């Protein structure tokens, strides 16, 4: 299988939160890998997520990244972040510090 990612990803094991609408509280998720462009998350249980999402790292400064579901397989979900200025720059800095 060919890897189609445009940006380098960082394997991590972090906690985060994912929200997909205003009707349900944010879900706690595990973050398995992270890049400037997106993340792979593991949900507590398999479920279908539709539409735009908001994502935040538990250890981050409270920045919320908006994006969309790129793929989903059972409880694993890939998110493609929307392009933004400040939040993306801080995430890129954090990823660089992990090397």
Reconstruct the topology from this structure.
Blueprint: E1 10-19, E2 27-34, E3 38-42, E4 52-57, E5 65-73, E6 76-81, H1 86-97
Antiparallel strand pairs: 1-2, 1-4, 2-3, 3-6, 4-5, 5-6
Descriptive overview:
- The protein is mainly β and 99 residues long.
- The chain has one domain (10-97): Thrombin, subunit H, CATH 2.40.10.220.
- 12% of the residues lie in helices and 44% in strands.
- It contains 1 helix and 6 strands.
- It has one helix at 86-97, and strands at residues 10-19, 27-34, 38-42, 52-57, 65-73, 76-81.
- A 6-stranded antiparallel β-barrel has the order 1-2-3-6-5-4.
- A hairpin with a 2-residue loop joins β5 (65-73) and β6 (76-81).
- The model has no long low-confidence stretch (mean pLDDT 80).
According to DSSP, the number of beta strands is: 6
List the uncertain runs.
none
Q: Distance between the terminal alpha carbons, to the nearest Å?
A: 26 Å
CATH topology value = Thrombin, subunit H
| Overall number of structural domains | 1
Features:
99 residues, 6-stranded antiparallel beta barrel, 44% strand
